[in-house]
Amino acid sequence: MDNGMEPDPQHWYSTNLVGVPAGLVSSLAFNEHPQTLNIAGVREIYKGLFNLLEEAADLTTAASIFRHYMEIVFGLLPPGSEAGKPSRGQQRRFCSSYLKLLEGWGFDANSPQGAVLKGWVESRFGLIPTYHKAPLTRFPSPAWVGYLEAKFSSRYHNNSIHAQLDLLYEFCQWAIRRFHGDAGERKTLWRGINCADEHILVSGSLRSGDCVVRLNNLVSFTTSRARAEEFGDWILEAQVPIVKFLFFPGLLSGATLAGEGEVIALGGLYQVKASYV
Predict the structure, then answer these.
(1) pTM of the model
(2) 3-state SS of 112-133?
(3) Do 185 and 34 touch, CB atoms closer than 8 A?
(4) What is the mean pLDDT of residues 8-36?
């Protein structure tokens, strides 16, 4: 990679687990004409879960089935419950969970949990991050070393965490198709920003109102423009393909992010409308 060059996902990865080139997934063309994305093997390996989900009459029931299944398969029951109670004299080992990652992301996308989530996007979709505490440009660099240490830390990178996130993504996409089939291919979302370092301007300018930005490989939006104003002076309005959603409000009842109207979605290039609050 040339010194000083901005990272380009299609130059870093040629393969992923969704069968669509990373360069295309991150492109403006994909946002205009989205394709269905499925992580290879997940539906087949966990066929029992999706058979159970088909019996759900509403999203609340489906979410309950999903969470219960995840608790059993990945040992996510809280300590003290019957199934999760440690044996006498044995301390139950901390088990990373998709819920803990979502919670950490909600507090700080640059947290260790955020690094694990960004690493999962790298692995499954071939999209590299552009920012984690600092711009991720030249490699190797202190910023890249810090990110790599965080994303591979055993604190949150254990308990088949990538498999858990695979299931969360596939459940999210299943729920959209099952209960929001009339939602269309894209949804208008907003993002409030202050720190320009996290957003790479590709063409145009924020002041012109129309521009192309490269967003991080995983990024948060909100379904409410008013809510976006709480997070920054500049508001970016984007048309986000639903197939890029990892999490949306109402997907998991009681989840940390549920009250903020937050959508977590894959990043890449986006044509946005920018406005100053």
Answers:
(1) 0.91
(2) HHHHHHHHHHHHHHCCCCCECC
(3) yes
(4) 86
